TrEMBL record:
GO molecular function: nucleotidyltransferase activity
Keywords, alphabetical: Nucleotidyltransferase, Transferase
Keyword Nucleotidyltransferase annotated: yes
Record PANTHER family: N-ACETYLMURAMATE ALPHA-1-PHOSPHATE URIDYLYLTRANSFERASE, NUCLEOTIDYL TRANSFERASE
Cited Gene3D superfamilies: Spore Coat Polysaccharide Biosynthesis Protein SpsA, Chain A
High-level lineage: Bacteria, Pseudomonadati, Pseudomonadota, Alphaproteobacteria, Sphingomonadales
InterPro entries: GlmU-like (IPR050065), NTP_transferase_dom (IPR005835), Nucleotide-diphossugar_trans (IPR029044)
Domain Nucleotidyl transferase, residue spans: 11-149
Descriptive protein name: Mannose-1-phosphate guanylyltransferase
Transmembrane feature ranges: none
Length: 241
């Protein structure tokens, strides 16, 4: 199989959330610093970026930002980290992208700081880069089919057509794919964005209407680590990697 260079050397790591579902563990620490298998969640994400060859990471911060910044400053390995500061106002996922955009190339990788996954035959950033088409896409989402989404108990998020175009789950129905929290984003997706806090879903809806939101299926395993009870089952899998 032919290889393709990564489409970007930079990733936005979303780490500003309040982590309410992880209480009481997040009462005194931000969710990205919760340890799973002996490693902070954000270190799992940054180490994956490092292994894939992504050289730079922009991390947005809000809740207990000083603790998170202090942790990032003492990391010895991995991508060079810069901060997108949301201390004054939590901007949600879409607003966080807009705030960080001046620090981000076009396109850029974007991932949640609490993601834990096992790669398939290729790392996910190589898989996304291989599928990326800047002429056709505003964003390319990494999707997880239900059998590969461990600890997940929801109804799914999206459908993919044969060309990889994304459509949403209908209310009351089940969709075959869950959004992994990992994507490639073009600055075109962010155009004419509203000011202040808003969800990326607003931008995705427009991209779906324009036929410019695409996805690919993850070939490895993905773990939802949204609640304290998900930590131990996830740790049981990780030594098998």
């Amino acid at each position: 199989m032919s290889t393709k260079p990564l489409v970007s050397d930079t990733a936005l790591v979303l780490a500003a959330g309040l982590g309410k579902r992880m209480r009481p563990l997040t009462a005194s620490q931000p969710k990205p610093l919760i340890r799973v298998a002996g490693k902070a969640l954000i270190d799992h994400a940054l180490d994956k970026l490092d292994n894939a060859g992504v050289a730079k990471a922009v991390v947005n911060v809000h809740y207990l930002a000083d603790a998170l910044e202090g942790h990032l400053k003492v990391r010895r390995n991995g991508p060079t980290v810069s901060i997108s500061d949301e201390r004054e106002l939590l901007l949600e996922t879409g607003g966080g992208m807009v705030r960080a955009a001046p620090q981000l190339p076009d396109p850029f990788f974007c991932l949640n700081s609490d993601n834990i996954w096992l790669d398939g035959p290729n790392d996910v950033f190589a898989e996304l880069s291989r599928a990326w088409d800047a002429q056709a896409m505003d964003a390319l989402l990494l999707m997880v089919p239900h059998p590969r989404a461990l600890n997940y108990r929801g109804d799914g998020d999206f459908h993919l057509d044969p060309l990889g175009k994304v459509s949403r789950r209908q209310p009351g129905r089940v969709a075959p794919f869950i959004f992994s929290g990992i994507q490639i984003v073009s600055h075109r997706l962010l155009r004419d964005a509203p000011e202040g806090p808003f969800s990326t879903n607003l931008l995705w809806t427009r991209a779906i209407e324009e036929g410019r939101l695409y996805g690919i299926s993850h070939t490895g395993l993905w773990f939802e680590v949204g609640e304290p009870g998900a930590i131990r089952p996830t740790e049981a899998w990780l030594p098998r990697a």
